[in-house]
Amino acid sequence: xxxxxxxxxxxxxxxxxxxxxxxxxxxxxxxxxxxxxxxxxxxxxxxxxxxxxxxxxxxxxxxxxxxxxxxxxxxxxxxxxxxxxxxxxxxxxxxxxxxxxxxxxxxxxxxxxxxxxxxxxxxxxxxxxxxxxxxxxxxxxxxxxxxxxxxxxxxxxxxxxxxxxxxxxxxxxxxxxxxxxxxxxxxxxxxxxxxxxxxxxxxxxxxxxxxxxxxxxxxxxxxxxxxxxxxxxxxxxxxxxxxxxxxxxxxxxxxxxxxxxxxxxxxxxxxxxxxxxxxxxxxxxxxxxxxxxxxxxxxxxxxxxxxxxxxxxxxxxxxxxxxxxxxxxxxxxxxxxxxxxxxxxxxxxxxxxxxxxxxxxxxxxxxxxxxxxxxxxxxxxxxxxxxxxxxxxxxxxxxxxxxxxxxxxxxxxx
Length: 414
Prior knowledge:
Layout lengths: L27 E5 L2 E4 L4 E4 L2 H4 L8 H11 L12 H12 L5 E5 L2 H18 L7 E5 L8 H7 L2 H4 L9 E4 L16 E6 L2 E2 L5 E2 L2 H14 L2 E5 L23 E4 L10 E5 L1 H4 L15 H14 L4 H22 L4 E7 L2 E6 L4 H10 L2 E2 L1 E3 L3 E4 L7 H21 L3 H5 L1
Parallel strand pairs: 3-15, 5-6, 5-7, 7-10, 10-11
Antiparallel strand pairs: 1-2, 2-3, 4-12, 8-9, 11-12, 13-14, 14-17, 16-17
Helix pairs in contact: 2-9, 3-9, 10-12
């Protein structure tokens, strides 16, 4: 008979929740707009958005109403039946993007998995089954499944999970993407990239480089897959980040902000790619369920409303201007500011991102760390000027504290 937990409390045992996260010792009990409140009632300005998920803040009244009304009707039916909300959302997303068709998922990793299957199936159906390899970029992040960690190739993600799924070729994040051509072979099926690298340190791909990648795909008969899980859905001032460049992908993955906090993702594709995905080639029990569709349609209502994305653009300008001044005032703390829209990063000179994020937490500001010694600022898209002012005041206090802790260069010389 299995011992109860109380019988073995004194032993060192694993907690009921698998310890895979280095969690901050703080729990958010409730949220309202751009503010979160912990169990002690302390108030935090949220510039992390649950890692770019809560694009419309906490408890947006229109989202609350949408989910409440749907909850009174039906939560789940499975995809063995038509789900009208899927048809509506798909038609609307297609109208405002390159896509002709799409598959709804519960997460970003699932959307990427769908994209990878689409790429392989497309080439199989076009009598080139040997084309299965996908070119990805060092520092990328595409999810935590076996396929998506293989796509990343980073040891911190793959260690202990080998052997890795074959099919990915990793190249540097080039300043000149023309160099990617060196990695293309007769087995290459696609190039996959984040238009703005998120976990990798807020690194945007220039419009010129996006065009180069599109041209390379056209030249060699490859598919261009864009991972907009973090940078899509209004985060960069446009509905999708690729729309800054004027090119179109063949497949696009989105999630996070598309559900405003409710689990939802989507894999968008052109007709030529979508035709390869026939009945039985893919599926999901929960993907595109009626609850998710009610939320997704309402989120899109808000994002596409007159003036909404213009507001994001204005807030982005104000926030970036403030961050540039912060960098000027604290050059020993902040090396550079980069990003686009309300997806901005502070590259720190010496301080680890975790330390900066912890000090910001003490000031009542929620931020998110990233690679390349970067701290991410991913505020809700509904922020106003006063929230930017408040955030900059808190960031100034954090930078001042770090600046005081830095060693004195003169004393080191002595």
